[in-house]
Write the C-alpha cells for this entry.
Amino acid sequence: MEFLDNIEIAVELRQIINADLAYHYRVVPKQDSDNTLVLFIEEENASDAVSEELELYLGKKIEFYKVSKSVLNKALYEYYRKEEFTTESTNGQTIAAGKDFLQNLILEAKAIGSSDIHFEVYEEEARVRFRIDGLLIEKYKIPNDSYLEMINKIKIEANLDITEKRLPQDGRINFEDFDIRVSILPTLHGEKTVMRLLGRDTSHLNLEDVGFEEEQYQIYNEAIKQSNGIVLISGPTGSGKTTTLYATLKLLNDSKRNIVTVEDPIEYTLKGINQVQLKEDIGLNFTSALRSFLRQDPDIIMLGEIRDAETAKMAIRASLTGHLVLSTIHTNSAIGTISRLVDMGVPAFYIAETLNASVAQRLLRRLCDNCKEETLFDRKDFPMGYKMPKPLKSYYKPKGCQHCYYTGYKGRKAIYEVVPMTNEIVSVIKEQPHNIKDNINYNYHTLADKAFALLENGTTSIEEIYSLLINA
C-alpha cells in the first residue's frame, strides 16, 4: 500500500468513473491508457472479483493502486462530492452539508472552459452537466432530496423568487471576475436550471483574431467602416455571432462616435458604449428600443437579433437615415439572409440600397490532436448529393482520450462566408429578389467550402461538417 497524503485527479479522468460507481466500489481514477485503467482503491477492497466486475463494466483492463481509507475518503469527498448532500442538524435546523459545492462547481466549470452549467432533475435522480466546446458532458449526480435546496441557493444568489415554481424565471449573478446568467424552467419533476458563464474580460475580443480569412476580413472591414448601412451576421444559436459583433464594436469604439446597443443578454460590458438590456416583460423589446435610439443621436446601433418583420423594417429605415446598424439573424447562409429579409416584407430596393455585407458563421469542433485517428476515404460517410471539390484518400475521425474528456474534440474553429454587395448582387436583389441564390454567380467561398478544407487538413471530422455539406 502506498502512503499518500493526498490524491490529485485530473478533470478529464473524472469522466471515466461517475459518482455512483466511485462510491459503490470505493475507487477513484489515477491513470488511463488505451487498454488499461489504473484506479486508487483501499487495500481491503482490492480483490480479483472487484477487478473483474469493473473490467466488464468499463471495458478495460483494471489495475489497482492501493491507498489508505482516509486518503480515499478525502478524494471521494473532494472530487465526487456525493457526501456534500447529506444533511445534519445545527441549532435545531436541518441544513445541507458541503456549502461550497455550488461555488466549487462554478469555479471548475470556468477553469475548464465550460460555457454553461445545466442542472436537471428526473424521477429518480438529478444531474449536473457542463457544456464544453458545444457538447454537454455529465459531471455529477445529485440526490433528488438535495436538488431543491441547490436550486433555491441559485435563486437566492440570482435574486429570484424561491416560492415561484410554476413559471420560468431569469436572473443574474455577479461572481468574482465574471457574471452568470441564470435561467429557471419548470419541468415535470422539478425546475431545470441553466447557468451561462459570461466573462467580463474583453481583451480577447479582437476582430483580426476571430477567424476571418484575409480577403473576408477586408470585405467585412470595409462594410463596417461605412457611415451608414446595415451589416448582418447569420447562424444558429451558439455559432459565435455575438463574439464577432462585440469584436466589431470594440474596433469601432472611439470618443468621436455614439454607439448604442440593445442585447439579450449583455454578455460583455464595453467601456464607452451605451448598452441596454432587453426587458420584454415591460415592453422594452428590440423595436421599441430602436425607436428610442433614433432620438439619442447615435452613429452606430447594434441590435442583438432581428427576430421579426417590424424590427427588420425599423433597422433598414435606421440605416437609410445615416446610421450604421449591426445585427444578427437566423438563416443558413449569407445569401439566405437576403431572402429572409424579403420574406419579412422588407422591399427589395431598400435591401439593395442599405445592406453593406452579409456574413454567415459557424463554430466547428477541432479534433483532439492527441487521439484523432486517420481513416481511408469512404463515400458512404458523405451526404448523397454532395459533390466534393477534390478527391480525398483519407481523413480523420474522433476517438476520445483523457485530454478531450473522451469526446474526441478539443477547442473550436470559426468559419465564415462573407458576401459583399457587388453591382451584380445588387441588380439581382432589385430584379429577382425571390430567386437570389439561383441567379448569382458564386465567386466566393461558401461555408461548405471552408468546412471541407478543414476536413481535408485534419482539423475536424466529417460528422462535424455533415450538415453543412447537405446544404451545399
